[in-house]
Amino acid sequence: MTPVLEENVSQRAHHYQSYCKCDKDFRAHFDPFSLLFKEPQQPRARSGHWRLAFFLLFAQLETLNAGRCVTSTIIPIINVMLAQRVFIFERDNLMQKVKSMATFRDEYDHVFSLLQQHHKWFQESIPLIASENVPSPAVREAIVTDFGNRYAEGWPGERVYAGCRFIDQVEFKCIELMKRLFNAEFVDVRPISGVVANLAVYTAFAEPGDTLLALSIPSGGHITSGKKELGGTAGAVKGLNVEYLPLDYKELNIDVDKAKSKIQELAAKGKPPKFVMFGASVFPFPHPVKELAEAVHSVNATIGYDAAHVAGLIAGGQFQDPLREGADVVSLSTHKTFFGPQHGGILSWEKYAEKIKKATFPGMVSNHHLHAVAGLTIACAEMLEFGKEYAGQIVKNAKALAQALHERGLNVLAEHKGFTQSHVILIDITKHGDGGTIEETLEKANVIINRNLLPWDIKVGRHFMHPGGIRMGVSEVTRLGMKPPEMAEIAEFVKRVIIDKEPVEKVKTDVTEFRRDYQKVHYCFENATEAYKYIKIR
Ligand SMILES: Cc1ncc(COP(=O)(O)O)c(C=O)c1O
């Protein structure tokens, strides 16, 4: 039986049970004498019942009072009318009850149906969102354990909660494995996301009013290093004064000379940067950390590196090594190129350990989602075993996808540099429409990508909802076992939608067929369960 059929049968069975129960309740309620003794559920109904019931009783007594012939004719009529009103009142009340009982169960079932539909859709789609990935069945198993119901505030071994015997062992193991993966002296795995990791890092190394230097959003930067006017975390939450690192549009990278000048200019104005954040959401090439480290440290600023996107590539030894290149602190997400559960982390040097620990707890988190720490620990073991091969394949796939799209007439940026050295590619789509519309059209063909601002979009008046670009990442398709020949097939689907304007339904059918062979997670120890299999444990 398909999940949808199963769902319909169980829904119908449940409605029948609800109906029978309500029918029984209705019969019990309808006995007028029970009105005097039962405990109605709503206060309004209770006062109504009592008033009507007493009226009926008095009326009955009155009719028994012989000799008053007018009363004895009128009272039975009133009696019948009242009985009718009680009936209507009770019926409405019960119908309301039937309706609300059915609605809650309906809603409950409806949510599960949506979840199942989502799983089915992803089984049939090509997931190319650069910030996403799919965890192994082992990670999925870890994140549904009881760890997710527990509290463990503080550092492992020094908790302010009992019951952490095994939780502490897992968290220590997580820290140990992360240290090995990133060759870091200090690791904090308590930030519950990349955003929280960045906020903890700002808290540890800067004060409100200090200057932060980072990439702007059109240049690929993330909203966590955004200005206050944009509601960015650095500006609006931490109160930092945000200045932008200059981007070389052609190279899709930070312009080293202009960045040095900017640091000097800010210092001359008496507002030297206190924190310089490298890293981005569109991050095709390693940032010039080494090249700028001296200039940043010369004004006593801290070098931060946001590895949210590229953590898996760094762990697999396929990107730059920010800690060796001069970074003081690295923040990350654990679920983009790193294939763990959704969570965050911070890497640094022992000399900064205490201030980072304090910024994370009690600064940013109380409990830190222990099931995610368990899942992350499993993902770390997988990354240590398979990371090099996995990350290497990602870079090969990203280059292959870019090349295949380029050959089919799409304007993939940075061709002169081989398009990318990471998991992500950026495409100027303006010849074919705007990023928002292209995103929607591809989604109808089951190709999931996202719209993206090009570095110059705001200057030329484009809106972020309809930008000139789209972004594609290959981490998830790589995890599903795809290689360069499959990248060429994906490029062909994209071309059929964007350039050939084939009907999306037709492309969708072919995408679904193509996806049948890629249902297992690779680069993990065990993969008995398919990547998007819906797991029912109710
Ligand atoms: C560069 C960068 N930093 C931080 C984040 C936030 O990470 P999270 O979604 O884990 O909070 C993102 C999210 O995509 C990102 O691209």
Considering DSSP H and I runs of 4 or more, what fraction of the residues is helical? Answer: 40-55%
Structural class: alpha/beta
Please state how the strands of the largest beta sheet are arranged side by side. 2-10-9-8-7-3-4
Radius of gyration: 32 Å
- Overall tally of structural domains: 3
Measured between the Cα atoms of the first and last residue, the distance is 17 Å
Bound ligands, each once? pyridoxal-5'-phosphate
Could you tell me the strand content as a percent range?
A: 5-15%
CATH superfamily of the largest domain, please? Type I PLP-dependent aspartate aminotransferase-like (Major domain)
CATH class term of the largest domain: Alpha Beta
* CATH level-3 fold name of the largest domain: Aspartate Aminotransferase, domain 2
Stretches with pLDDT under 50, minimum 5 residues:
1-47
Q: How would you sum up the major sheet?
A: 7 strands, mixed
CATH architecture of the largest domain: 3-Layer(aba) Sandwich
β-strand number = 15
Tell me briefly what this model is.
The protein has 538 residues and is α/β, with parallel strands linked by helices. The protein contains 17 helices and 15 strands.
Tell me about this structure.
- The protein has 538 residues and is α/β, with parallel strands linked by helices.
- The protein has three domains: 121 residues, no CATH class; 246 residues, Aspartate Aminotransferase, domain 2; 130 residues, Aspartate Aminotransferase, domain 1, CATH 3.90.1150.10.
- It is built from 17 helices and 15 strands.
- The strands form four sheets. The protein has a seven-stranded mixed β-sheet with strand order 2-10-9-8-7-3-4, sandwiched between helices. Strands 11-12-15-14 form a four-stranded antiparallel β-sheet.
- Strand 5 and strand 6 form a beta hairpin.
- Helix 5 packs parallel to helix 13 and helix 8 runs parallel beside helix 9.
- The protein is globular and about 105 Å long.
- The N terminus is likely disordered.
- It binds pyridoxal-5'-phosphate.
